[in-house]
Amino acid sequence: MLNIALFGPPGAGKGTQSEYLIKKYNLFYISTGDLLRNEISLDTPIGKEVKSVIASGGLVSDEIIVQIIEKTITENTSFNGFLFDGFPRTYVQAYILEGLMLKLNTSLNCLISIDVPEEESVKRLLGRGKSSSRSDDNESVIRTRLQEYNQKTLPVLKFFKDRGNYKEVNGLLDIKGVKDQITEIVKEELSKSLLNVVLFGYPGSGRSAQGRALAEKFGLEYLSAGDMLESEVEMQTEYGIQIKKLYDSGTLNPDQIGQLVPDEIVVQLIEEKISKSQDMKGFIFKGFPRTLVQSYILDGLLKKYTSSITKVIEIEVPTLELIRRLNVRGKTDGSRPYDSNYEKIIQRLQDHETRTVPVISKYMKLHNGVKIDGSGTFDQVNKKLAHEIEIVLKDMR
Fold first, then answer.
1. CB 130 within 8 Å of CB 138
2. Among 106, 138, 204, 367, which is most buried by a count of CB atoms within 10 Å?
3. What span, in angstroms and rounded, lies between the C-alpha atoms of 305 and 301?
4. pLDDT value, residue 204
5. What is the pTM of this model?
6. Cα–Cα distances in Å, from 205 out to 208, 290, 373, 382, 390?
């Protein structure tokens, strides 16, 4: 996830830069003022409490604010992260945000401060006042607002400087100049993130070979649930013994279409793999997730390690070509149990459609997934897949 706090005195241009950031990086915009007004308009229990506090002339407590922010974050998981505008406003709120991020298994990547000298802020706001006729844009009110901003903000900035994630940009530049500085900061943060690619496709689409080739090309780890399970059985590990018992008892039949090793086993194997790959740049996931349940599991696992899905790609191959490929593979050493006859091949394709197509539909919407024509030669398809990953890497650099 990409979580940013954007700071700057009145007149620094935060609104313009915020709009750019949320569109460019698919971030959810969090402004405490907007959130409070939304709760009031929806007449929620928190909204009623906020309305009562404001009506009595009081200040909304940090306890209420953190509840609203936590609720907002947990309800907007389809975004790539969050942009906090003007929050945290106090030293105490900085600690609150840090604790909340930890609770939600994530963190604030950085606080970006748009630095604008006081006299420049006054000049800009006075100019805005003349063009918009805003009554609060007079010099006396402006200087009071700037003084209040500085008094409250300096301790917050020190908090993040001490944490090492404070970034400052020159706000005296034009809009593009400020945007370019911010973009470089974000790219630096993204470069620290894992590149996680989920590769989808019907059986016979070439996911295995393409996944391995892409992993090697980009220095990623190829993670195939099927390969991992087979390896566990061959090495007679604790998990392998459990799987073999399921086979021996008839609970699982490797020749029967649609049967899956229990998620309890698969999830533990995948988490172990992720946790032990601290130095990896990221993963190519093949064969997982296969179900909607597994998709929620993967999202949670990556979030636990302060990561997320970066790219979703589906390799599309015409059905008749899939059947032809699987039939040919059934006559080779790489044959799968479901390659042995046409009936099993068709059943396996139907199983994919029933179980996995809903997962693909979900991920395509959430992560702006792409479809790649997989009917060409291996090199032709690989070139298309590599191009999509290079686009993501370019943004991360």
1. no
2. 204
3. 7
4. 94
5. 0.61
6. 9, 15, 10, 12, 21
